[in-house]
Amino acid sequence: MSYNLLKGKKGIIFGALDERSIAWITALRCHEEGAQIVLTNAPVAMRMGEINKLAEKISAPVIPCDVTSNEDMQNLIAKSMEHFGGSFDFVLHSVGMSLNMRKGKSYTEIDYGFNQKTLDISATSLHRLLATCWKNDALNEWGSVVALTYIAAQRVFPDYSEMADAKALLESITRSFGYHYALKKKVRVNTISQSPTRTTAGSGVKGFDGFISYAEKMSPLGNADAEACANYVASLFSDLTKYVTMQNLFHDGGFSTTGVTQSVIEQMEK
């Protein structure tokens, strides 16, 4: 059901790979709520995924962007403003990759060159995005930027490896840049700490199936799925949340504040 929450709003969505990705589902939801959208992803991800299928469905242009490149980011923002006929209202940053995890390296033996790339792609890219929008005066007053994160930024999940460090940096950038952007143009910047979700990227984490089952048992409401996350993102892009900024917002069925549940106790006692 549409509530026209985003009627007249325009924005960029990073990271739509395929129909399982949160960014893909969020793009559909924002379109349903009346938004105009530009889609973007890394050139290699675009070759692997099906972004053009989504673009056709929501009548959105696709502009490639390597988020580690200042030139690519500038090109994305400039072409988006050209497409929209001026500044825009929202951005979803759904970007993350760990080269060490891909190479099977444990956290205690990470390659520091790979680690630098991981931090640049998964976290510093948010700073680059915000700085480029700032320089180009690309975001409208009361605009909204949302980045996707995970509770491993605060708690130890051994198999999440260096991505935990990247998410911690991502959340710090959200607070620091969020302060400056609030003063400049009342733009709000937040992260959503989402439940483990069966996306193409998420499923690649070692031990993911066992962990998602554990998280389900540890969440009083159960794990939040991608569709629910898309709804939450749409609400943060809307004018209903104009005074929410610099926050890490847990969207995890209560997992983040639950010490233990009866179902976990029963499982341990078997």
Describe this structure in words.
- By secondary structure, this protein is α/β, with parallel strands linked by helices.
- It has a single domain, classed as NAD(P)-binding Rossmann-like Domain (Rossmann fold, 3-Layer(aba) Sandwich), CATH 3.40.50.720.
- Helices cover 45% and strands 14% of the residues.
- It contains ten helices and six strands.
- It has a six-stranded parallel beta sheet with strand order 2-1-3-4-5-6, sandwiched between helices.
- Helix 1 packs across helix 9 and helix 6 runs parallel beside helix 7.
- It is globular, with a radius of gyration of 18 Å.
CATH topology: Rossmann fold
Q: Count all strands and give the number.
A: 6
Count of helices?
10
In CATH, what is the class?
Answer: Alpha Beta
Instruction: Give the percentage of residues in beta strands.
Output: 5-15%
Residue runs with pLDDT of under 50 for 5 or more positions: none
- Which secondary-structure class do the elements indicate? alpha/beta
- What's the CATH H-level superfamily name? NAD(P)-binding Rossmann-like Domain
Mean pLDDT: 95
CATH architecture: 3-Layer(aba) Sandwich
What general form does the structure show?
globular
The largest sheet, given as strand count, sense and whether it forms a barrel, is: 6 strands, parallel
* End-to-end separation: 43 Å
